[in-house]
Amino acid sequence: MNNAINATHLTFLLTGAFWTLVLSLMAFVGGGVVGLVIALGRTSPVRFLRILSGGYVQIVQGTPLLVILFVVYFGLPTVGYSLSPMLAAGLSLTIYVSAYLGEIWRGCLEAVPKAQWEAAECLALSKTQRMVKVILPQAVRIATPPTVGFSVQIIKNTSLASVVGFVELARAGQLINNSIFQPFSIYMIVALLYFCMCFPISVFSRRLERTGASRLKAAETAVSA
Amino acid sequence: MPVVVLKDVKKSFGSLQVLRGVSFSVDKGDVVALIGASGSGKSTALRCIDRLETIDSGTIDVCGYSVSDPNLDLRRLRLDVGIVFQSYNLFPHLTVEENITLAPRSVKRMQKAEASEIAREVLAQVGLSDKADNYPEQLSGGQQQRAAIARSLAMQPKVMLFDEVTSALDPKLTGEVLKVIETLAASGMTMIMVTHEMAFARRVADQVVYMHQGRVHEAGAASILTHPTTAELSEFISNDL
């Protein structure tokens, strides 16, 4: 019996990596949309919305992603909603990511100086115009480095989807290992593939932070000059 | 016919009473200098006029609007009142021209070309014609403040409020901003300015309102700055020299 890692195994791992990326994208888009709603709720002038979104964040952040995944995949069918492993993983990650992105973005919205709201208000802009044309564009700038940084967490956390049988990179590694039992080499390759996906994003995030900082510095020197 | 009238305005922040019954009025085309020590309530009084603060009692009328009316449409008030702040508060993500055209375009629904034309006019007025495409961070403090004045002017307000607009600037930059305000005053704009520039107030103001401990302590023509009648104003002025 041939126990060596061959090209078929590598193709299988690469396919797994592809699904890891797909799942990451689902989580990022879904979590981003819900996260934006959460961030707006957290900074809303309406008390009820603040409490509701704050409660959501507390509950999700206080629950392991694995447990969310179990509830969605094994729990929902008992009340009549059966989801495929991929949808279950996508939904769980969406819930998880939205709570964290919501909090990150809330901080970024609050980091825009209050005086900007006031200046916009004094120009007779409506509440929506103030938010959309003055506050959000500035918050997006502040939010970009931490958001890109967090997407590394998303990619790594998709590996948990393997427990409900979704064949992404980690699960692909497990399956190959079950047949040829070479855990060290296989999981090293899996780790390397994760690293190849995450490292460029980390570098990008760090560069964003640096350019953000230098932009600020340039602004300071321009003012003091 | 007064454009701005304050009657017995009172305002507290928590247990601290900042305005203890402030009354004064501003006629159309008049320039009023609001002076006084830090904490005398002059900035608060100014902010109340634009409803950035709500008052506890008394009345404020601005351009026919009752500012103290809780049902007042604030956006209509702000179409008539322009305000410039000490910290400029330009929008950092927009160019100078975009800063100026934002409100005319989104509030007055102006076409791009028309709004740009107005931007050119107001920028010429404040001497920044060559800075339309710059971002605020590329300008000096004095230029930023003049851009902020231009942004306010683009909405063609009936009253302009200036809240210590030169306090963050060095003497040279202060000079260029004051020159813009002085030209504006000469053009007949109704203005209320909170200022620490006594020489400027003396030169430009039609009326000087001296605030002390939340009240109008002394008010009158600019000559009260050279011939004060109360001991407090005379002491306040002597500190300035």
What report would you give on this structure?
- The complex is a heterodimer of chains A (225) and B (241).
- With 225 residues, chain A is an all-alpha fold.
- Chain A has a single domain (7-224), classed as MetI-like fold.
- Chain A is built from eight helices and no strands.
- In chain A, α1 (7-42) runs antiparallel to α2 (47-61), α4 (85-111) packs across α6 and α7 runs antiparallel to α8.
- Chain A starts with 6 loop residues before the first helix and ends with a helix.
- The model of chain A has no long low-confidence stretch (mean pLDDT 92).
- Chain B has a domain at 2-88 and 160-240: P-loop containing nucleotide triphosphate hydrolases (Rossmann fold, 3-Layer(aba) Sandwich), CATH 3.40.50.
- Chain B has helices at residues 42-49, 74-80, 96-106, 112-125, 141-153, 171-186, 198-204, 231-240; strands at 2-13, 16-27, 31-36, 57-62, 65-66, 81-84, 159-163, 190-194, 207-212, 215-220.
- Chain B is of the alpha/beta class.
- The mean pLDDT of chain B is 95.
- Chain B is 36% helix and 27% strand.
- Chain B has a six-stranded mixed β-sheet with strand order 6-7-8-3-9-10, sandwiched between helices. Chain B has a four-stranded antiparallel β-sheet with strand order 2-1-4-5, with helices on one face.
- In chain B, α5 runs parallel beside α6 (171-186).
- The A-B interface holds A 113, 115-116, 118-126, 129, 133-134, 137-138, 141, 215, 218-219, 222-223, 225 and B 50, 52, 74-76, 78-79, 81-83, 85, 87, 89-93, 102-103, 106-107, 137-141, 144, 151-152, 155.
